[in-house]
Design brief:
Helices cover about 35% and strands about 25% of the residues. It is an alpha+beta fold. A hairpin with a 2-residue loop joins strand 4 and strand 5. The longest helix has 22 residues. The chain is globular, with a radius of gyration of 18 Å. About 40% of the residues are buried.
């Protein structure tokens, strides 16, 4: 398989991130200094100290990882907002996408194919059957309603949809319209409105979470997991 058809998955553990790691002094100073002004501004707008620390840690790891692909320092990585606000490199380089939920974050990197990744905590405090009836296709609703563990089934389908949306750089409304039930853990999804397809696959995730990654184009791709410890 061509390197163009590889997707590198970098887990970013956030469980050990301390509240003080988001500060511009102390343990988190190096990570803070790697962030761009708009990233720092967003961090400062986040009132919850733990959430702020997670955000700073995740964005720092994003920059360090992209820098390793580009052969530059993390501070030299230039990002911009693409269509519908999806972050992308301002110049040439790999395609990427970052998702985080609680203490878990995943970064997906692809050499040439647009990529989307999503990780979500399985929610047991919501009526997922009602939500599936409202937002999913009839087939997907039936799958969630008939599942032995509806919250797990709902999270699995939701992450597939989110991953497709993020690969397209589109809106969640578009993703909800795309049927992604069935087909085991991997499925080819026709883009909303036609014009090609995406391939989406489920990912291994920690207990209590679901995750999926999608790439533009129907041809197969290889998921390559990378070790990415916090240090």
């Amino acid at each position: 398989m061509s390197p163009d058809d590889e997707v590198h998955l970098w887990p970013i553990p956030l469980a050990e991130v301390r509240e003080g790691d988001s500060a511009w002094r102390g343990p988190g100073r190096a990570a803070w200094e790697e962030l761009a002004p708009d990233e720092r501004a967003r961090a400062l707008r986040t009132r919850d100290p733990r959430a702020r620390a997670r955000y700073v840690a995740a964005r720092s790891r994003l920059r360090r990882t992209l820098a390793s692909y580009l052969g530059v320092e993390p501070g030299a990585v230039r990002l911009r907002r693409g269509r519908h606000g999806k972050p992308e490199l301002a110049g040439d380089g790999p395609r990427f996408n970052l998702s985080h939920s609680g203490d878990v974050a995943l970064l997906a990197v692809s050499a040439t194919r647009d990529v989307g990744v999503d990780v979500e905590r399985v929610r047991h405090d919501m009526d997922v059957v009602r939500l599936a009836h409202r937002f999913f296709t009839p087939g997907e609703y039936a799958l969630v309603r008939g599942a032995e563990r509806p919250p797990d089934a709902f999270a699995r389908l939701w992450t597939r949809k989110e991953a497709c949306v993020k690969a397209l750089g589109g809106t969640l409304f578009q993703g909800l319209a795309a049927p992604i039930a069935g087909g085991g853990g991997t499925r080819v999804v026709v883009k909303p409105g036609g014009g090609g397809a995406l391939r989406v696959t489920d990912l291994h995730a920690p207990e209590g979470f679901a995750a999926a990654v999608a790439v533009d184009g129907a041809r197969p791709f290889l998921v390559v997991w990378r070790d990415h410890p916090l240090r």
